[in-house]
Amino acid sequence: MNWESPAAFFAMGGYGFYVWGSFGVCALLMVVEPILARKRHKEAVRSLRRESLADSLEQT
Amino acid sequence: MSNVTNSILFKYATPQNFYPLAGKMIPWFWGVGALLFAVGLYISFFVAPTDFQQGEGYRIIFIHVPAAWMSMFIYLVMAMWAAIGLGLNTRLSSMMAQALAPTGAIMAFISLWTGAWWGKPMWGAWWVWDARLTSALILFFLYIGFIALQAAIDDPRRADKAGAILALVGSVNVPIIYFSVKWWNTLHQGASVSMTKAPTMATTMLWGMLIMALAFWAYAIAVALMRVRAIILEREAHTDWVKELPEVKQ
Fold it and tell me: Do B223 and A34 meet the contact criterion of CB atoms below 8 Å apart?
C-alpha cells in the first residue's frame, strides 16, 4: 500500500493536479465516447422504424 | 486455410451477418475491459511503487503509454481495413475503417493530453516541438483529416476510396512516431518497453502498464463495434435485411 491517508492519495506527492488532470480527461472521454456511439445506433434504429411505419401506412 | 474457417470468414464478411455477431460480442468486450481496468487501475495506484526520480507524477504513464500505443495500432488497423475495402470493394471493411477513426482520434488526443500534463511538471513545458510530439500531433490530424474527408463526400463509396488513400499515405507516419526517439535527439524519453531489449522499468509498473494496455484494447474494440453497428444501419438502410431486423420491425 502506497498511501497513508486519502488526502495523501489525492495529493499524489504534489503531482495531484497533473495526475488527476490526466486521468480525469481520459476517464471523461472514455465515458462520453460509448454514450455517443450508443446514441448514434439508437438514432439509426429510430429512423428505420419511422421509415417502416411510413411504408406500412402507405400500403393500407 | 480450411474450408470451414474460410466459409465462416466469408459469412461474417457481410454486414448482414456481422451486425448480429457484433451485437453479441459487445457485452463481452465491455465485461473483459471493465475487469482489466479494475485490475490495471489498482496496480497503477496501489501496487506500483513510487518512482525514485519522478515521484508519484510518473503514474500518468499507465494511461499515456497505452493510449499512445492504441493510437498507432488503431491507425494501422484502420488503414488495413480501408485498403481491403479499396482493393476488394467489400462494404464491411470500409465501414470498419470508418468506425475505428473516432476511437483512434480519441486515443491520439489522450496520448497528447496526458503527455502535456506529464511534460509540464517533469520538463517544465506543456509542449515542445520535438520529433516524437510533432509526429504524434500529425497522427491526430490524420485521424481528423480522415473523418472530415469522409464527411465531406456525399457518395459513401467515393468517400471510402478517398479516405482509404488518405489512410494509406498517412500510415507512413506510424513508424516515424515509433522510431522518432531513436532517429532524432528528442526531449521525449526512449522506449521503456521494446521488442529487442529487456524492459527498463520495475516489474509491477510494467505489469500495470500492460494490463492497462489490454483494457484500452478491449475498450477500443467494444466502442468500435458499437459504432460499426450504427454505421451498418445507416448505410444499409435501403436493404431488406435491415427492414426485417427485430428492432426495426414493429
Answer: yes
Identify whether the C-beta of residue B55 lies closer than 8 Å to the C-beta of residue A18.
no
Give pTM, 2 decimals. 0.92
Distance from CA of A13 to the nearest CA of B (A): 6
Strands (E), chain B: none
Contacts 24+ apart (CB under 8 A), B242-249: B242/A48, B243/A48, B243/A51, B243/A52, B243/A55, B245/A48, B245/B19, B247/A45, B248/A45, B248/A48, B248/A49, B248/A52, B249/A52
Distances from the Cα of B154 to the Cα of A6, A54, B199, angstroms: 54, 25, 48
State the distance between the two ends of chain B, measured CA to CA, in whole angstroms: 42
B6-59 residue pLDDT tens: 676 677 788 999 999 999 999 999 999 999 999 999 999 999 888 888 889 999
Q: How many CB atoms lie within 10 A of CB B15?
A: 22
Interatomic CA distance for residues B105 and B109, integer angstroms: 6
Which chain B residue shows the shortest CA-CA distance from A45?
B248
CA distance A9 to chain B (A): 9
Q: Using CA atoms, how far apart are residues B227 and A37, in angstroms rounded to an integer?
A: 5
Give SS3 for B180.
helix
Query: CB-CB: which of A14, A18, A37 is closest to B120?
Result: A18
Classified as helix, coil or strand, A1 is: coil
> Quick count: other Cβ atoms within 10 Å of Cβ B196?
5
d(CA A12, CA A7): 9
Residue A42 φ then ψ, to 5°: -60, -40
Examine the predicted complex and report whether its ipTM is higher than 0.90.
yes
